[in-house]
Design goal:
The protein is an alpha/beta fold. Helix content is 38%, strand content 22%. The protein has a seven-stranded mixed beta sheet with strand order 3-2-1-4-5-7-6, sandwiched between helices. Strand 2, helix 5 and strand 3 form a beta-alpha-beta unit. Helix 1 crosses helix 2, helix 1 packs across helix 3 and helix 3 packs across helix 4. The longest helix is centred in the first third of the chain and has 18 residues. The chain is globular and about 55 Å long. The termini are far apart.
């Protein structure tokens, strides 16, 4: 790791190049998050991307870019399958008024995320160790969030069953998918409808000066999710709604 002031300036410049305004304090928080991430990555597998410039583009900017298109201020947000904290932690740093829940099924990741929350002095954030299909049926989480985000790699047909139940009617689920996700979006159409959603956005993102593109699929919650969903026993993954 190099000169911290140089690295912070780099973060501010790269965010600005991608239409995201970030001040010195937020850039410093992201740098500290980077430092914690690569240090912990030496003893547990959190990310295959560890070079500073790549982390800034492919983790930090990629996570935060949603804020260019969606008003996140003062929203309740749940990040399902957050892993090392993406997209949730960068979104929280850029938009500190978010009330954020980080959800992951691996407790070691939750332990790391709690270290990050403490180390960066973040408030209004909780990290929960649970499976999405278990938490999604609990009354204090089901249909309680304005926004659900997920950068998990599961197929969209599976992800919608995990994620839409968390969203209140009138809220939205934003799924970070690979570029050109049209086939996946088409295949998920039936599941989205059954779960009470409607696909409303297909945001194509290119990180400037980086060979990196993605699609963010926006799904509005237009009616309550039937009580039978999400199903347990790994069914959303092994037998997606058709």
């Amino acid at each position: 790791m190099g000169d911290i002031n140089k690295e912070i300036s780099y973060i501010i410049e790269r965010f600005g190049n991608n239409g995201l305004t970030i001040d010195n304090h937020k850039a410093e928080q992201l740098y500290r998050f980077y430092s914690m991430l690569v240090e912990k990555n030496k003893v547990m597998n959190l990310t295959a991307i560890t070079e500073f410039e790549e982390v800034v583009d492919k983790h930090f900017i990629d996570s935060a870019i949603l804020g260019k298109y969606v008003d996140l201020n003062s929203k309740t947000v749940i990040d399902v399958g957050t892993g090392a904290g993406f997209p949730g932690i960068p979104l929280k740093i850029l938009y500190p008024d978010i009330k954020l829940t980080l959800l992951d099924s691996l407790n070691k990741r939750i332990v790391f995320l709690n270290e990050v929350i403490t180390g960066l002095n973040l408030s209004g954030v909780s990290a929960i160790h649970a499976r999405a299909e278990e938490l999604g049926v609990k009354t204090d989480h089901r249909e309680q969030y304005d926004i659900c985000v997920s950068r998990a790699v599961s197929n969209l047909s599976t992800l919608v069953e995990y994620c839409i139940p968390f969203v209140k009617v009138g809220g939205c689920f934003y799924s970070y998918k690979a570029a050109k996700a049209s086939e996946e979006i088409s295949q998920a159409g039936t599941a989205v409808k059954i779960l009470g959603g409607k696909i409303t956005d297909n945001i194509e993102v290119k990180i400037n000066a980086a060979d990196f593109e993605r699609t963010i699929v926006g799904i509005e919650k237009i009616s309550a999710t039937p009580k039978k969903y999400p199903r347990g026993g790994n069914k959303p993954a092994s037998n997606p709604i058709q």
